[in-house]
Design a protein that fits this description.
globular; disordered C terminus; two-stranded antiparallel sheet
Length: about 200
């Protein structure tokens, strides 16, 4: 539901499973008509969470998205009911195709623990590169349910490249994987559209 629409500002409430695609579609249309970029801040909160906290998280996410170099970015804050928040940001073109790919793999059987294993890696690696690629390949090879296509080596290369495109590097990759893990559950089910 659109709550406010004025100029280039939009405030909308959407199900978690469609919020990112909705915001991305708006950003693409804005770009098509104006030849300018649009950034978005998204807060994913439980329906029983205080609305003012979700709105403030969305505003802060928007501020963080606008700090991404060259703008045209999205920032998502996942607000868990237990109080822990995960925030990830990046340019639309770096986030959407890869996020949807990872959601597909998580739905196809890739263990959700993979996201948290990458989060642990983020503390020990300086940034994307050969070491990250090797560690991602090792992690993907040890999980049953990991996709056969692409191979662990190819998927590790893709994820390494994604980390290189994100403002926070390996930590940003880990945060997007954690958000993908959540969205894989939200986007699943008979009535969900597969990204």
């Amino acid at each position: 539901r659109v709550i406010y629409n004025g100029g280039d500002d939009v405030l909308a409430l959407a199900p978690a499973g469609s919020a990112l695609r909705f915001a991305h579609a708006l950003a693409c249309e804005f770009n098509r008509f104006t030849d300018a970029t649009a950034s978005a801040g998204i807060a994913i909160a439980h329906h029983l969470s205080p609305l003012d906290a979700a709105l403030e998280a969305a505003r802060e996410a928007e501020r963080q998205a606008k700090k991404v170099r060259d703008k045209g970015a999205v920032c998502v804050t996942l607000m868990r009911r237990g109080g822990e928040h995960t925030t990830a940001r990046g340019r639309w073109e770096a986030v959407m195709p890869r996020l949807e790919e990872v959601v597909k793999y998580l739905r196809g059987g890739l263990s959700g623990r993979f996201a948290y294993d990458v989060a642990r890696l983020a503390y020990s690696l300086e940034g994307p590169g050969d070491m990250l690629r090797s560690e991602l390949k090792r992690l993907l090879s040890r999980y049953e349910g990991a996709p056969a296509e692409p191979s662990p080596k190819d998927l590790a290369c893709r994820l390494n490249c994604w980390a290189a495109e994100l403002p926070e590097g390996v930590k940003g990759l880990a945060d997007w994987l954690i958000i993908a893990r959540f969205l894989a559950g939200e986007w699943g089910g008979d009535n969900a559209a597969v990204p």
